[in-house]
Amino acid sequence: MTFISQKEINEIRSNASIVDIISSYIPLSQKGKNYFGVCPFHEDHSPSMSVSDEKQIYKCFSCGATGNVFTFVENYLNISFSEAVEMVAQKIGISIHVNTPLKQETKYKEEYTIMDLSLKFYQNNLNTYRGEKAISYLKERNLTLDTIKDFSIGLSLDKDMLYTFLSKKGYKDKLLQDLGLIQISDDKAYDVFQNRIMFPIHNLEGRVVGYTARCYFTEITPKYLNTRETYLFKKGTILFNYHRAKEAIHFSKVVILVEGNMDAIRLYSVGIKNVVALMGTSLTKDQIEALKKLRAKIILMLDNDNAGETASFMIGNTLEENHLSFEVVRLNGAKDPDSYVVEFGADAILENIKNAISFTDFKLKYLKKDKNLNDANDLAEYVKEVIASLKNMDDAILKEVTLQKLANDYNISYTILKEELGNKEEKHKKQVFKEEKTENTIKKSSYEKICEKILFYMMHSPGFIKLYQTQLGIFPTKEHRLIANEILYYYEINKTINLADFITYIETTTCKAEVMSILKNEEEKPVTEEAMKELLHKLKKMIKEQEIEKLKQELSQEFDENRKTILAEKILEIKGSVADENYQNV
């Protein structure tokens, strides 16, 4: 990583042609003043991504993906913002001094510092004489010193040594407890992890957020102890080894999804680096989104037991429902990928990956479990389950082949099977439509839309910022006020507004997601001063109408006659100002 100021980041951005950079990843063709290409961020079959050489931004008119040169590289390669800046700088021949961190504010700067210190503390313990027994244990588990180093494996000791170390540096007990490093009982602080080998867990960006801790020389229960859920460590948002595996996945276009941390460590250590591990035996929405970003085929390779088989079926259904491309590997002769590699070697597991089966073939076998297909009831149940499982399948040919196979194998009318599938699909479509309709009822109000359009305009011209300052001054709602303040701060510092550079700036703010949403949802159309004035007029009118409604509510509940008179006069005064503004805008 490198240290670089916001000014230097903007300089790199201004010297990097977004058309040249994006066209080095995807083909672009010029149409008019803009360039167009097939969007890499969704299943796109016709060019829907527009790249503006003039504005130095891109936008997909289908999925809404938008940003500048850095955000494209960041999302396309699935790397961090700082890595994207370095990548762009390298492409255009700008040198950056190495060995110092990129200057980028973080919401949890102190917390991440503490977690980094804990990691260094544990690693140091392992490399002292007190770590000799733990090193021997790890070697017995066939982990080399290189692997121990690659995965930053450490050691927790007894006597609450981590707490002593961190408290001497001035960190408060409450904060250390919130991070899951210590626990407090009877006003005394204790290390959560003692006498355990420490496997750090990183979030998707590569920051240490928690640990898996294993006992190694005595029977401590439980054998494995994980960091409890904290505001940094949210198990459902993490895929173990994701940050290390991204580059290998990008080049191989394949990601191997395993169950346990040791499975990932083992595969990575023998050169199979495109591997990530679940933090449990289910797949969350956040993990699915992380997998989608990789844009790679998934090889689902879970433990070789009944639980692993069931998890393969459940997770496979989730992957299929989310239209992800994947295949399944079921290993034989070992309980999990870790044991399999130790016993049979890397080549054997690579051969299994090469011969992975489709999820359909896996399902056909799995659904036969515990069924006697010579029994009419069991056979009917099996056939119904297979047909129900086809409703989420995108491949029409595979559906057809599966129905033909059922018809031939069990002497069932193909027509009946086809009708049954049609009924299932129709019912599924109605359910999906109902869910989408429910989601779509939560629409943005006219007030929110106007606020967002004003903010959108402000991001495009200093003149619109000045109009906001002179004609409105402040948004009534906190979320819009926060974005406006960021725009105003950027404008005050830079004396202008450049959308491409502002997108870089908001990478370091808490309102990044809201800003990108405004840019994503806003239609591309001429931004005019008249349109901005009209929006400001409408918003002021809405604010006053809301104020009138609030005063009417107060009036209806007021018993004091003097107070009623004051409220009524205030209502008339506001109505008069609204009428005056309407007249002035005619």
Overview of this protein structure:
By secondary structure, the protein is an alpha+beta fold. It has five domains: 6-91, Zinc finger, CHC2-typedomain (DNA Primase, Chain A, Alpha-Beta Complex); 109-233, DNA primase DNAg catalytic core, N-terminal domain (Alpha-Beta Complex), CATH 3.90.980; 239-358, Dna Topoisomerase Vi A Subunit, Chain: A, domain 2; 367-440, no CATH class; 446-584. A hairpin with a 5-residue loop joins strand 9 (196-202) and strand 10. The two termini are 57 Å apart.
Q: In which order are the strands of the major sheet placed?
A: 1-2-3-4-5
Low-pLDDT sequence parts: 98-105, 438-442
- Fraction in helix: 40-55%
What is the 3D form?
globular
Q: How many β strands by DSSP? A: 16
How does the SSE layout of this entry go?
Blueprint: H1 6-15, H2 18-23, E1 29-31, E2 34-37, E3 49-52, E4 57-60, E5 66-67, H3 69-77, H4 81-91, H5 109-126, H6 132-140, H7 145-150, E6 154-156, H8 161-168, H9 173-178, E7 182-185, E8 188-191, E9 196-202, E10 208-214, E11 224-226, H10 242-252, E12 254-258, H11 261-269, E13 275-277, H12 285-294, E14 297-300, H13 306-321, E15 326-328, H14 337-344, H15 346-354, E16 357-358, H16 359-366, H17 376-389, H18 396-410, H19 414-440, H20 446-458, H21 462-471, H22 478-494, H23 499-505, H24 512-521, H25 529-556, H26 561-584
Parallel strand pairs: 12-13, 12-14, 14-15
Antiparallel strand pairs: 1-2, 2-3, 3-4, 4-5, 6-9, 7-8, 9-10, 10-11, 15-16
Helix pairs in contact: 1-23, 3-4, 11-14, 13-16, 14-15, 20-22, 20-25, 21-25, 25-26
